[in-house]
Design goal:
With 242 residues, the protein is mainly β. It has two domains: 11-82, SH3 Domains (SH3 type barrels); 92-240, no CATH class. Helix content is 10%, strand content 46%. It is built from two helices and 17 strands. It has helices at 214-228, 232-240, and strands at 11-12, 15-16, 18-26, 30-33, 42-46, 51-57, 62-66, 72-76, 80-82, 92-97, 103-115, 122-134, 137-148, 159-166, 177-184, 189-195, 208-210. The chain has an eight-stranded antiparallel sheet with strand order 10-11-12-13-14-15-16-17. A five-stranded antiparallel sheet has the order 8-7-6-3-9, with no helix packed on it. A two-stranded antiparallel ribbon has the order 1-2. It starts with 10 loop residues before the first strand and ends with a helix.
Length: 242
């Protein structure tokens, strides 16, 4: 997963900015202006659904964007959604511990991107290969994982949803054990949100972990998920493999 570079630039068209790179999704038709004010000259226009690259942000909520070539302009931030790129270059490997002394190793592989039905955004999707020492014995299994590349519920906060599904647990194939973790990019942390099946929830799981990068967010989400499951998960996986 490649992090966007941070530019040393401190002004755009003479306007002070905090350097911040990344892509944004345009949510409505909007004018591009020469300065960070509705009184500034109009120098372009963006259409609903366009994607633009940012150079930085102003203190009062305008985003400096890159136009054609070396040109730049400003768009009010309320018209833009911050995007992340969930692409994972190579494998992400790690270790995590769960309830009852469970110890696991995992390997995460990026398998592609998929559109969210009836939305203009996509998820980055992953396969997670697990090897775990559990009360039910040594278990190996696969899980499906995703991260939304636009903020959760299309809000303007930099909060992205991570989901982890274990399809070997649960009575219905379309209702697997699903754990949801929120990646709060602006606060450099991941926070446990929910576990879908009550009979598999641990009583007092860890609630959050630091995550300064997207790989750390994915690894942190896996660790939080593992700690949020009780020992019945391992019995269910073992029973399904018999």
């Amino acid at each position: 997963m490649i992090a966007s570079p941070v530019l040393a630039q401190e002004t755009v068209r003479g306007v002070p900015i905090t350097a911040q790179t990344g892509d944004y999704l345009v949510m409505n038709d909007v004018n591009v202006r020469a300065g960070s004010s509705t009184r500034s000259e109009k120098i372009g226009k963006l259409n609903d659904g366009d994607r633009v690259s940012a150079l930085g942000v102003t203190d009062d909520g305008w985003v400096a964007i890159r136009l054609d070539g070396d040109a730049a302009g400003f768009v009010f931030g309320n018209y833009l959604l911050p995007l992340i790129d969930g692409t994972l270059e190579g494998e992400l490997k790690g270790e995590a511990a769960g309830a009852g002394g469970v110890k696991c190793t995992y390997v995460v592989r990026h398998v592609g991107k998929a559109p969210i039905p009836n939305e203009r955004i996509v998820t980055s999707d992953y396969e997670v290969e697990w090897r775990c020492a559990t009360p039910a014995g040594e278990l190996g299994f696969l899980a499906f994982m995703f991260i939304t590349e636009a903020p959760y519920a299309l809000s303007r906060s930099r909060i992205y949803q991570i989901g982890l599904d274990v399809r070997e647990v649960g009575e219905e194939l379309d209702e697997p054990l699903s754990t949801i973790v929120m990646y709060e990019d602006a606060k450099d942390r991941v926070v446990l949100d929910s576990v879908s099946l009550t009979e598999f929830r641990a009583s007092a799981p860890e609630k959050e972990r630091p995550a300064k990068t997207k790989p750390e967010a994915l690894g942190g989400a896996i660790t939080l998920a593992l700690g949020a499951w009780n020992e019945a998960v391992w019995d269910a996986i073992a029973a399904g493999q018999q």
